[in-house]
Design goal:
Elements (H helix, E strand, L loop, with lengths): L1 H19 L15 H4 L8 E6 L5 E6 L3 H15 L3
Antiparallel strand pairs: 1-2
Length: about 80
Amino acid sequence: MRRTILLFCVIYLLISTQACTDPKGQKQEPVFKQLPDIQEIKPERPAKIKLKRDAKDDHSWEISGDDVDEIIRVDKKLRKDLKTD
């Protein structure tokens, strides 16, 4: 009886081991796909502001950056904060 159970266990292990191996015997390399959306993303640089004040306490500034909407938003905020038109 023990030999029969042992024989079934050995056969089960051999079958399960055979099922886990590649039948062709070739190792497959993992494939990594590069997403084109990720490659095109550039880090956003903040707008650069050069704030100037003259002897009469008048303010002026130069804003540079890549995003026009951000430049306009920063300009409006500066005008509001400095109360300059």
